[in-house]
């Protein structure tokens, strides 16, 4: 089995869908991923990957969530890129919350991701960050 097929399987696609779509796209991996994000080769809606689902649950649009493929399925990088595009320069309220979490010892990336996941509710974010820190 080729590396490209294995990667698609790891992303949650069936071997049949991976092989079919790769062959339809002349083994161009990036184009195959774009096509699989839209629909399966058989024309049925595909299963959304867990990371895509999580982004949608966080309030991002499906189009924003599908940028995961362009970020090599890196969840944190995707969230950061979506926020950078959406807010450009972060508004003062967002910056204040991020800075407060950084002063508490959390990384900026972790602060932004947890704040986003908690709809920018600082208290809820702190609670979740502290509980995840205690579980580690």
UniProtKB/TrEMBL annotation:
It comes from the Eukaryota. This is UBA domain-containing protein. Residues 1-39, 89-132 form the UBA domain. InterPro entries: UBA, UBA-like_sf.
């Amino acid at each position: 089995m080729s590396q490209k097929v294995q990667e698609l399987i790891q992303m949650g696609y069936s071997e049949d869908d991976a092989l079919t779509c790769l062959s339809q796209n002349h083994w161009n991996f990036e184009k195959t991923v774009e096509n699989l994000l839209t629909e399966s080769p058989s024309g049925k809606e595909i299963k959304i990957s867990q990371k895509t689902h999580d982004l949608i649950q966080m309030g991002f649009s499906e189009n924003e969530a599908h940028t995961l493929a362009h970020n090599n399925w890196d969840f944190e990088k995707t969230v950061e890129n979506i926020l950078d595009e959406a807010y450009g320069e972060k508004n003062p309220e967002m910056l204040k919350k991020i800075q407060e979490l950084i002063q508490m010892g959390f990384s900026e990336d972790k602060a932004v991701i947890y704040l986003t996941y908690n709809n920018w509710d600082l208290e809820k974010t702190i609670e979740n960050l502290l509980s995840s820190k205690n579980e580690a």
